[in-house]
Amino acid sequence: MVLNDERPAHLAWHETLELHEIVAMQTSTLMKLEMFYPEIEDSMLQQLYRQAIEDHKNNLVELLRFYPKAPRHEKKTMGMMVEDSFFAGELLSCAKNSIKAYAAAITETATPSLREAFVKQLNQAITMHAKIFNYMHQQGYYPAYDLNQLLANDMKNAQKALGMDT
């Protein structure tokens, strides 16, 4: 249901951050799909990968169109080493996914000793996430407090992923 038919001049902060998360995830996934594709021998699996690659590319092109509507404030410049930032981002993504998986698993666990193991491992994943985030932030790979740079990095990385050859 549309409550207000007016189109806002810019995106809200919270949806911009969600957009950032989705673009970063789609970019990382596209890069992995592109890297794995040449190794696949099964023709049916190749077709599935090809479709997934095209879907991710189309998704990124569509989502990048929203970036000009992202809220902005003061500009800063920061150099980035893409290779290390990609690997660090992958590690951060793994930590985030682990946290989500453990949190979901805990809600389904009936055996106390298994729940205890999940909680212990969840806390380890949370600690690891913090360490990875701090590393990325200190290295300038994740400018979490600079939305302009965060979005600029997304666009640069997505454009790089879109330009990868399969």
UniProtKB/TrEMBL annotation:
Entries under Pfam families matching the protein: Coat_F
GO BP term, example: sporulation resulting in formation of a cellular spore
Keywords, ordered alphabetically: Capsid protein, Sporulation, Virion
Keyword Hydrolase: no
Record flagged with keyword Kinase: no
Cell compartment(s), UniProt: Spore coat
Gene3D superfamilies cross-referenced by the UniProt entry: 1.20.1260.10
Entry-linked InterPro entries: Ferritin-like, Spore_coat_CotF-like
Lineage: superkingdom: Bacteria
Residues spanning the signal sequence: none
Family: Belongs to the CotF family.
Name of the protein this chain belongs to: Spore coat protein F
Source organism: Pullulanibacillus camelliae
Gene: cotF
